[in-house]
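Lecture 7 notes. Example A: sequence first, then its structure tokens.
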Amino acid sequence: MVPFQSYLLRCLPVMLGMALISCAAPPRIIDKKRPPQKADYVMYEWYDDTGPGKVAININLSEQRARYTRGGRDIGWSYVATGKEGYGTPSGRYSITEKIVDKHSNRYGWIEDEWGNVTNGDAKPSTAVPAGERYVPAPMPYWMRLTSYGIGMHAGIIPKPGEAASHGCIRLPKELAPVLFESVNVGTPVTITH
């Protein structure tokens, strides 16, 4: 037998083994165009035992988090989005004075074209509306009023957990807002601190 053929015959089992191993696991394809997905934030936890005691809410502006208690027992926490720069959420002691399931802002909204595309995402009722477009007041579902001048808690977008983003209101995670709304009453205390 020719030395080269002998060499091939000895290498054949090794090459066959490598080929079979490469079939066992699909190749890992790395897409360099898309960054890896970040883990989703846990936006809230709710574990109310509905036992004795009244609900109280504590909002920390520095952390952008709320803590919920019933009779002094922790019943949950959530991220919130409070007033961004120039629209600060005031600290202090408040109580819920009004509850409305389906409220819309009389101060803020957006302008959209006839197809529903937003052309101005930060408009006021006084903002000039181009022909063929319309002003849409911002929805504030599960509204819980805290002040006479328009500050309250409601379901809303929390674009970056831990960062302020609103015009002064306290935005709550959309899934938590109806649960909290049903758990509080007019008179529920809300403390806002830095």
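Example B, a different protein, same format:
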Amino acid sequence: MRVRAAIFALLGLATTPLDSYAANITQARSWTDDAGKTRVVLELSAPVTPTVFELANPHRLVVDLPGAVAGADLGEQLAFSGSPIRAMRTGEHRHMTRLVLDLSEPVQVKHFLLAPHQGQPDRLVLDLTHAGKGATATQPIASVTLPGPLQNAPASPGRDIIVVVDAGHGGKDPGAVGANGTYEKDVVLAIARQLERRLDGIPGFEGELTRKDDTFLSLRERTRIARDLSADFFVSIHADAATRKSAQGSSIYALSTSGASSETARWLTRQESASLLGEEDEHIALAEADPMLRSVLLDLAMGITLTDSISAGDRVLKEMGEVNRLHKPRVEQAAFVVLKSPDIPSLLVETGFITNAQEEQRLKDPIHQAKLTDAILNGLVGHFDKKSPPGTWLAQQKTSRVAITNAMLEKQVAVEKPQRPAVYQIQEGETLAQISKALGIPLDSLRDENPVEELPLQAGATLRLPAGPDNTGT
């Protein structure tokens, strides 16, 4: 599982010293022994605090290295023959490197850090054993020393936030057709693919597509895919249509439980998107409940989900307004089937009016598509930065950010507080007690630094002062 505005800006670190790279991944090695255990060693120029976790469907091992940068194509340095590793990919985003090892099968993984020793640099070691062959934990190595931050690392790395991206229409259903013959299904698939890739490239988020090519999917299949993937959010990408050829601009829709919220939404509900309308998903696990209880539970679930949907929609709409004209200045509501999952917050994004000749050309433009993609991405990530689902990587990072920020502020205050000078020149007639009071230094501390027996002290001579903050207020 793999997000927006950039995530580290959302983590509040974009303007802090943590934003700079702290370590280079200088080399990678791997080998597989006769017992079938594969070891991957990453050499580092400085210590790191890695996050290592596994993903399924397909099987992958993910290694996140905050503050690290890959110095070369690491995948070319590794030997995968005889191992469960098929390939390794690397990506960087806002001062974090993510390594993804594509696996041919599930594995058991142990990882640990090795401190510099006998000319060897810092190293991260990954041991992979076949999950189906009675794999056992890696035995500890005597020379391993764990740096402080790793000892306090959370027991679980936290899961990714899953966003299912639905490209509307497809296959035998072209959707709306532009003035110059452009099919809606083609435009929205291009945008959906970009959005899925962008989500995958951001730590803490995973993008999934309902369709990857020109395939027809029923509306129920689309929502079922989202539920099967345990999606945290569902966003359906469309291009608008209207009989009035001058209509233009982007729109955002959330579910309406009581009907459309504007004439435009009502028209869409009756006409263009009539096939999108239907009853609540029959696969919700409420089938055996009392009818009244089922109704109450469904209303409660939809109320919570709708609140999240509109909150996210407001953010996406604001971002869309930065790159395109808005058809409506607020999130609209309509009873689209693809928005009716009561347990998954959902939005339908109308990227523009494909029936407007000028907007049709923009929707076909890859640069404009990228701008629309970024707007949707930034809106969704901004939403999840404020409302991170419990147990997710992003929620854990937000908790850690508070401690990191506080520690950095304390350090900054300590650095900025003026320090007293190392010596003090005695003035005419001053005594040690007077100097102690004037400088805010305990008399005993002054005597420890300067064993003086006779008073008054000699004018012009210097006293050694103990280290500490300047308490004179000057």
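Note on Example B: Residues 291-323 form the longest helix (33 residues). The chain is about 30% helix and 25% strand.
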